[in-house]
Every structure is written in structure tokens, then in C-alpha cells.
Write a structure and sequence with these properties.
The complex is a heterodimer. Chain A is mainly α. Chain A has five helices and three strands. Chain B has three helices and seven strands. The chains are: A mainly alpha, B alpha+beta. The interface between A and B is medium-sized, with 17 and 22 residues.
Chain lengths: 114, 138
């Protein structure tokens, strides 16, 4: 499963921001994706059991200007629960915790366009 | 004392259990987090996925952005007959709705993503169609 790093704040003018500040948008998003991955590694509820879930969390580059945080191991079962285990969400909370800083970084770039 | 995430679950639970059509489809009832072993199937499970606060510039809480999950759980063989209609009915009851619970307002609720979870339990395939719902609670 993968969580795409969103860019809703400046989505409409993102191409303009990318053109004006080559590399800056990529930096904001890739560093945001890394922070999501780190937050999830630090806070997932199955620490030090097999190590597979922590080790599986990583960032992959997709298309241009797109990054995805990828989760493997027991991530799916932890996030949504199973018939015999309640959910222990940690992926969405990681995204929600880091997202404001990504939005803020993109908004700062947007403000420089004016 | 505010506890917006639980207000969202409280509202959703009341809406679902108050609907005779939905309850006829989920014979095992509605549970939070996990149903007890041996619960009749299908049953529904609600849980909190995430709940960040939206704060104003002076750190006052505007609302809590509650993401909660709902899944209808049962043997996959019951899928077309029971699981799918139950989830479809739940979506009618929760999506694009608003309400109140525990003295707080559910300003709006909408499904943010759909789920379809499969797992094998004792050599039987179980299926859990569901969805993640975003509710603004103030």
C-alpha cells in the first residue's frame, strides 16, 4: 500500500511553481515524504517484533514531481484491523501529522510567485 | 470535556443502529474496534483512523477532522447477498450527512476512500467491504 504525498494547496498553480522554482517543489515533497515515513516508523504499534514492518516503510519516486510512501509487512492489517485484531492506525496519523508542513512549504513557494 | 473522535463514532453508531434496514443486514450488530469471537456474521465495525485538530491563528480549536472507518465483516460467501448491500446501505446513511452527538455537532461527513479487505481465517475467506469517512466535529 502506498500513500501519495498530496499537493492540494497549490494544486492549480503547481506547474507554474515548478517552472519558476526548479527542484524546490521536489525538495518540499520528497522531504515531506521522508518525514511521513520516519514518523510512521517511529510510531507504528508493532515495534521490534519482527522488524519487517519498520523495514518495509520507504519512499519511492513515481512520476515527475511525485513521491509515494510505501508500507509493507503487517501495515495493512495494523491500519485496518482483521477479524481477530482491532485496527492500530499509524499510517494516516503520520500523513496527517506531516501534511501541514508540506502544505506550508508549497504555500511559501506559491507566495513568491506574486 | 471535548472528545470529538468519539462523538463522531457515537453519531455514526446511532445512525446505523437506528436504521432497521441496516440492522436487518448486519445480524451481528455494530461494534467498535473488534467484535467478540463467535459474533454472528455479518457484523459492522467502527474505528477511529486519525483525528487532527484544525486550529485558528490563536490556537483555538475550530473543529476536529475525524477520519473514521467502517467495515462490514463476514465470510466472503455472504458477499453479494449480505455484505455488499449492508455497506451500500451504510454509505447512504453516512455519506454527505450531518448531525449531532454528545452535545457536539457533526458538521458534515463524507466518504474519503473505499476499502475491500480480504483475509483467510481457518481456511475460510472473509471479506470486509468498507470505507473511510471524514467527519468535521465541533
Amino acid at each position: 500500500m502506498a500513500w501519495d504525498v498530496g499537493v492540494e494547496v497549490v494544486q492549480d498553480i503547481l506547474p507554474e511553481v515548478i517552472a519558476r522554482f526548479p527542484g524546490a517543489v521536489d525538495t518540499v515533497q520528497s522531504s515531506g515524504a521522508e518525514r511521513i515515513a520516519q514518523y510512521a516508523r517511529d510510531h507504528h504499534p508493532w515495534q521490534n517484533q519482527t522488524g519487517w514492518t519498520e523495514a518495509s516503510i520507504h519512499v519511492e519516486r513515481g512520476a515527475d514531481h511525485e513521491w509515494a510512501v510505501v508500507f509493507g509487512g503487517a501495515s495493512l492489517f495494523l491500519e485496518y484491523g482483521t477479524v481477530n485484531m482491532p485496527p492500530y492506525p499509524y499510517i494516516q496519523p503520520a500523513f496527517d501529522a506531516v501534511r501541514p508542513s508540506i502544505d506550508d512549504g508549497l504555500s511559501r513557494l506559491e507566495s513568491k510567485l506574486v | 470535556m471535548s472528545n470529538e473522535p468519539y462523538r463522531a463514532l457515537q453519531w455514526a453508531e446511532a445512525v446505523l443502529t437506528g436504521d432497521a434496514t441496516f440492522m436487518a443486514l448486519v445480524v451481528g450488530g455494530v461494534w467498535r474496534g473488534l467484535a467478540p469471537q463467535g459474533t454472528a456474521t455479518p457484523y459492522a465495525v467502527l474505528w477511529i483512523g486519525s483525528a487532527p485538530d484544525l486550529l485558528s491563528w490563536n490556537r483555538r480549536r475550530v473543529w476536529t477532522d475525524v477520519l473514521f472507518g467502517l467495515k462490514v465483516v463476514g465470510e466472503a460467501s455472504k458477499g453479494i447477498a449480505a455484505l455488499d448491500p449492508a455497506m451500500a446501505r451504510a454509505d447512504v446513511l453516512l455519506n454527505l450527512q450531518k448531525g449531532a452527538a454528545g452535545g457536539q455537532s457533526i458538521l458534515g461527513c463524507a466518504r474519503e476512500s473505499a476499502l475491500d479487505l480480504e483475509e483467510i481465517v481457518n481456511n475460510v475467506l472473509w471479506s470486509s467491504p468498507g470505507g473511510m469517512y471524514r467527519a468535521h466535529v465541533a
